[in-house]
From TrEMBL:
GO biological process terms held by the UniProt record: translation
Region feature (Disordered): 111-143
Organism, scientific name: Cordyceps militaris (strain CM01) (Caterpillar fungus)
Similarity comment: family membership: Belongs to the universal ribosomal protein uS17 family.
Cellular compartments per GO CC: mitochondrion; ribonucleoprotein complex; ribosome
An example Gene Ontology molecular-function term: structural constituent of ribosome
Keyword entries, A-Z: Ribonucleoprotein, Ribosomal protein
Name used for this protein in its record: Ribosomal protein S17
CDD domains to which the protein is assigned, alphabetical: Ribosomal_uS17
Protein origin, superkingdom: Eukaryota
Length: 160
C-alpha cells in the first residue's frame, strides 16, 4: 500500500540541472543555482535569469561547485521543495570519499517508514486519550451516583 507522498513523488517526470552555490552552511540543505533566460521584448534580447533553489541533501554529500540534478519533491521545510537526484560532476573532493546520495526510491521509502511510525504513535496517543476520557466519565458518573444515593438517604431520613 503506497501513500500519497510516494505517488506524488513518483509522478514527477522532470528534473533540473544546476550548480551548488552554497553547501555546509545549513544542515542537510544546499543552495543550487539553475540557469535560465528571460526575454526582454524592448531590446529583443535574452538575458541570463538564474533561479536559486534550496534543496534537501539528506546525507550532506554535496560540496560547493558540484553540478547536480535535482527533482521537485515535497515540502521538507518552509522553502525547501526539491531533492538531490544525483551528482553529475563533482567539484574538488571525489564522489567515492563522500557520503552516498540516496536514490529517490530510498528517500521515499524512508519517508514512508517515518510517516507510518508517526501514524502509529498518533493512534496510540489517541487511544490512550480516549481511555482517559472514558475513565474520567466513569469517575464522574460514580460521583454523581454517590451524590444521588446520599440525597435519597437524606430524603428518606428527613422526608420531603
Amino acid at each position: 500500500m503506497s501513500s500519497q507522498v510516494s505517488k506524488a513523488a513518483r509522478r514527477v517526470t522532470h528534473e533540473l540541472h544546476g550548480v551548488v552555490v552554497s553547501a555546509g552552511l545549513m544542515q542537510k540543505t544546499v543552495k543550487v543555482r539553475v540557469a535560465g533566460q528571460k526575454w526582454n521584448k524592448i531590446v529583443n534580447k535574452f538575458y541570463a535569469d538564474p533561479k536559486h533553489y534550496l534543496v534537501h541533501d539528506p546525507n550532506s554529500s554535496l560540496r560547493t561547485g558540484d553540478v547536480v540534478a535535482i527533482a521537485p519533491g515535497w515540502p521538507t521545510s518552509r522553502h525547501k521543495r526539491h531533492v538531490v537526484k544525483q551528482i553529475i560532476a563533482p567539484f574538488g573532493e571525489p564522489i567515492e570519499s563522500r557520503p552516498v546520495v540516496p536514490s529517490l526510491n530510498e528517500i521515499i521509502a524512508e519517508r514512508e517508514t517515518k510517516k507510518n511510525a508517526k501514524d502509529d504513535r498518533k493512534s496510540l496517543r489517541r487511544q490512550s486519550e480516549h481511555e482517559q476520557r472514558l475513565s474520567q466519565k466513569k469517575v464522574a458518573a460514580d460521583e454523581r451516583e454517590v451524590k444521588r444515593t446520599a440525597w435519597e438517604q437524606l430524603m428518606v431520613k428527613f422526608g420531603p
